[in-house]
Amino acid sequence: MTPYTVYVVDDEEVAREGVVLALKKLYRIKGFANAEDTIEAVLKNPPDLVLLDIGLPGMSGIEALRKIKSLYPEVIVIMITAYEDVQTVVSAMKQGAYDYVVKPLQMNTLMVTVRNALETIKLRKEIQLLHEKYLKENLPGFIGESDAIQDVMEVVTKVAKSPDTSIVILGETGTGKELIAKAIHYRSPNFEGPMISVNCAAIPKDLIESELFGYEKGAFSGADKSGKEGLVEKAAEGTLFLDEVADLSMEAQAKLLRFLEEGEYYRVGGTKKCMAQTRIVAATNKNLEEMVAAGGFRQDLYHRLAVIKIEIPSLNQRREDIVPIAKHYLVEFAAKFGKTFTGISPEAEMALKNFKWTGNVRELKNLIERAVLLGDGPLLELRDVGVAPDCQGAGTTVGGTTVGLPSLIPDGIDLPEVMAAIEKKYYEESLRMTDGNESRAARSLNVSRDTFRYRRKKLFG
């Protein structure tokens, strides 16, 4: 990986050069004696991190922090102060400083602080690469490495090119049907037009028709005196996303069918024919074919909507996407809650990949939000996610002890990763029980001390 760039800003030459000397073997380092030269350098070549003294001649460290964060919010800034000035440090943290260190600098502490800060960049860059790979041209889409999602996005790319083709998106609750609708819109020729979403189940059945097609003044009691344009009209030259389309009343279904076939409609209480070029993308988690057979959904509307059917696989059907999605939300919520997380531990990753996700991506998102809010970092640990490592697991007996293991799922598991996670768990437990004594820990695992030390280094780095 390309070395990180770190700027060291301190007017005390001895202190500045000491830090430069300590860090230059690990990072690309530049030293500056004042804030003005630093800002000029940041404009030309933004660094990954700035070590910034608070007490500088001319522009102060706080002013420089404010300027750097306004220019490049993603640059990490660690403040250096000669004393514990609480108010100044609090002010710096409020304005975006990552952390602070106190003079005289303890190099070991400084190195750890810098390393932890840069680890957050590593995770952020990893997520950025995922976005660049799966959300091409900054358009909405899915983060996913599975063949199932890649097949879905291939269909999306093809059908989006036809701005008049109706589409129905099918999938369980929480799979991301609206994301697919947005991906279709922003990849279509109508991408500059509006994208309007409506949950048909959230609107009373006696109001859904007027919401979709609008109404004329005085159309019904309580109606706006000037009338109201409907969502079909608001989404003209764009896309109207009808989520939970199965909940439309039969009357609204009839009007929607007419609009899809003729491109025309009437406002409630109106006699003037209206026209609009609006693409309809519908979605539901219900079985429309069964509803048609039972008389709960119009067959002609179903066929008109389902010119193209896109079925989104559940999260359980694309387990290789779980960790990339979890990391995406880890970055998002860490920024939201001002937390420092550098990744997800192997044990937590394994547990997430083997958990039965009844709520799909929405459930995973909520779990990561809670874990970040309650966790301390720098890694998201098994205890944070609250998912048992053997949540779906079978059991095996080793030396009289039953050990929980993840079940073998249809897509298979990464056996070396599972074995490494189990081994690491026992090494951690043995060290905890022996207060870090390697000889006793090795005996508790029935391995030699040399083997223990070798495997410990391989597992923990």
Structure write-up:
This protein has three domains: 5-133, Rossmann fold, CATH 3.40.50; 140-313, Rossmann fold, CATH 3.40.50; 319-460, Helicase, Ruva Protein, domain 3 (Orthogonal Bundle). Helix content is 47%, strand content 15%. The protein has 19 helices and 16 strands. The protein has helices spanning 13-23, 35-44, 61-71, 86-94, 107-134, 147-160, 177-186, 205-213, 231-234, 250-262, 288-294, 299-305, 322-337, 346-354, 360-374, 382-385, 415-433, 438-444, 449-460, and strands spanning 5-9, 28-32, 49-53, 76-81, 99-102, 167-170, 195-199, 239-243, 264-266, 273-275, 279-284, 308-311, 343-344, 379-380, 394-398, 401-405. The chain has a five-stranded parallel sheet with strand order 2-1-3-4-5, with helices on both faces. It has a five-stranded parallel sheet with strand order 7-8-11-6-12. Helix 5 packs across helix 13 (322-337). The chain is globular and about 85 Å long.
Topology readout:
Blueprint: E1 5-9, H1 13-23, E2 28-32, H2 35-44, E3 49-53, H3 61-71, E4 76-81, H4 86-94, E5 99-102, H5 107-134, H6 147-160, E6 167-170, H7 177-186, E7 195-199, H8 205-213, H9 231-234, E8 239-243, H10 250-262, E9 264-266, E10 273-275, E11 279-284, H11 288-294, H12 299-305, E12 308-311, H13 322-337, E13 343-344, H14 346-354, H15 360-374, E14 379-380, H16 382-385, E15 394-398, E16 401-405, H17 415-433, H18 438-444, H19 449-460
Parallel strand pairs: 1-2, 1-3, 3-4, 4-5, 6-11, 6-12, 7-8, 8-11, 13-14
Antiparallel strand pairs: 9-10, 15-16
Helix pairs in contact: 2-3, 5-13, 6-7, 10-12, 13-15, 17-18, 17-19, 18-19
